[in-house]
Amino acid sequence: MKHIHIVGSSPRSGTTLLFELMRSSFSIDCYPKHEARIGKRPPGNCEILLTKSPKDTVVMDTILKYVPNIYVIFVLRDPRDSAVSKHKNKPGCYYGSLRYWFNYIPYYLRFQGHPRVLTVKYENLVAQPDKTQERIGRTFPFLKKTNRFSHYTRNARPSADAKKALGGVRKINTSSIGNWRKHKSKLKRDLAKFGPIADDLIRFGYEDSKEWRKELADAKNQSIQQHVSPFSTKAFVKKKRRTQILRVPKVWFYHSRFFQR
């Protein structure tokens, strides 16, 4: 069994979109309806299993080390846009936060560059979906293409939960890129609370300089509602790291020939 697990720089980074694109555009015989953590028991007799859970970013370095038939796609998104993203489940709240960036990215750096890891930028995915699909196919040659990513709306059959996360089945577009400029007050608050990201933006190719910070100078303080997820906290990350020693044998067993038989 080949298992591709999608993780990301945070929730609201594009992992659901990529999951649905791959499910509808490659020949993949096993997948959950929406989200499944890496330790969840997979169905037996799978040739290719596709799952996703952004929260698993913090443990994938260890899983990759011990489970050789797991492949990872990491979805990287401009943290400013993720921080101001919202969700249909809580439309009046900001669902994203820079807290995720600071707690998840250090663990991504531990497996960045691994031969079974592909990093996909959300911005490239929505701007050039077919080129991104070709890159995925070259990286994981066991995947068989059945449709084009750009034809997503013709073939997609997302679950109800996925539809909420995606805001419906919509044509892929770039309208969400740079959305932080419409929510400067929220971003300014996050920066004050969690710390600067200017160096990271240059490091990951989102900015050439720190000039963008001037756009926040006149941002007014506004009352906002923030969804605070336990999955964004340092306590969650510490617990995941502490219990991974128990998770690794379970994941290894589920991916062994013995279990698959």
Compose a concise summary of this entry.
By secondary structure, this protein is α/β, with parallel strands linked by helices. It is built from 12 helices and 4 strands.
Which labels suit this protein?
Rossmann fold; alpha/beta; 4-stranded parallel beta sheet; single chain; 261 residues
Describe the structure.
With 261 residues, the protein is an alpha/beta fold. It has a single domain, classed as P-loop containing nucleotide triphosphate hydrolases (Rossmann fold, 3-Layer(aba) Sandwich). It is 41% helix and 9% strand. Strands 2-1-3-4 form a four-stranded parallel sheet, sandwiched between helices. The longest helix is centred in the C-terminal third of the chain and has 21 residues, at 234-254. The protein is globular and about 60 Å long.
CATH homologous superfamily name? P-loop containing nucleotide triphosphate hydrolases
Low-confidence stretches: none
- Number of helices, counting only DSSP H or I runs of 4 residues or more: 12
Q: Helix content range of the residues, please? A: 40-55%
